[in-house]
TrEMBL record:
Protein's membrane topology: Multi-pass membrane protein
UniProt subcellular location: Membrane
The organism's taxonomic lineage, starting at the top: Bacteria, Pseudomonadati, Pseudomonadota, Gammaproteobacteria, Moraxellales
Name the UniProt record assigns to this protein: Cation transporter
Keyword Transport (UniProt): yes
Amino acid sequence: MACTCSHEPAPQKPNSKFRTALWIALFINLTMFFVELIGGAYAHSSALWADSLDFFGDAVNYGISLAVLGASLYWRATVALMKGLSMALFGLVVIAKTAYAYVQGIPPEAMTMGVIGVLALIANVIAAVVLYAFRDGDSNMQSVWLCSRNDAIGNVAVIFAAVGVFGTGSLLPDLMVALVISILGLTGGYQVIKKAVQERKQNKMVNA
């Protein structure tokens, strides 16, 4: 007699297109991490420094995503949950860094901010386009799409901040953008955490 018990669905076979997209995004984010880290330190820009940490976090997330391709839904959701928590933690770190920069009161160098901001935007648009087709997948796929989308939005804000700093000579536009990036990290992390928790619950119900 065939068993009528409910079992967990078989793990998804690794999607070769998604794997290739992840490798492209990983390379882009790791490269831009070094570019913005050095540029942010040179320009005294909180927004660039924050964005460089975001690039590094995304590179790590893409690497983790590559490692769990083909794993069960439970483990993909568990990894996505960890990534969501890291996105939210990143937002809190940026808020703390912004507060520190405000106390220091050193205006950033606008030209360097603008040039690196444009370069980062181009890089993130490429990554977002590559990952766009997977935006409606499971929490793991959704998390990598949200990372690239948030980065592209953040880079547009960095460019506007550079214009603001150039026009006013004030560090406030830079700090405001750093806060925007932190909010994107917090909200994006919440979305990923919410979906990952739902998928873990569904998995437990199937195996109950």
